[in-house]
């Protein structure tokens, strides 16, 4: 019988997959998933910094596991279905967000705020501090 140099049909070709969908620039301070180190947000997207709120205001956000930060935009996160929840600041329609890499629930996205004083949160993201770590240039 002749020997073939082709691999058997049942062998699977292994390829290196991309770990994260998006990488944030190394020149900026960033936040990453504490569980898998996927990039989550640039420090410039932190609402308190972008809008001039005080540090006290920034730390007043509460997640289910403690303090949380509010961001304008995030990367490498998936979004579940929206549902109405009564939070400390009233009724909101929110969708849980999770790390696309390790699937850990990180916080939520504000889809709709029912009170006019809370409308600034619509389209913004809460990430709990328990699920993120500071990366790049925090020294």
From TrEMBL:
<keyword id="KW-0479">Metal-binding</keyword>
<comment type="similarity">
    <text>Belongs to the yippee family.</text>
</comment>
<keyword id="KW-0862">Zinc</keyword>
<dbReference type="InterPro" id="IPR034751">
    <property type="entry name" value="Yippee"/>
</dbReference>
<protein>
    <recommendedName>
        <fullName>Protein yippee-like</fullName>
    </recommendedName>
</protein>
<dbReference type="GO" id="GO:0046872">
    <property type="term" value="F:metal ion binding"/>
</dbReference>
<dbReference type="InterPro" id="IPR039058">
    <property type="entry name" value="Yippee_fam"/>
</dbReference>
<dbReference type="InterPro" id="IPR004910">
    <property type="entry name" value="Yippee/Mis18/Cereblon"/>
</dbReference>
<feature type="domain" description="Yippee">
    <location>
        <begin position="29"/>
        <end position="136"/>
    </location>
</feature>
<dbReference type="Pfam" id="PF03226">
    <property type="entry name" value="Yippee-Mis18"/>
</dbReference>
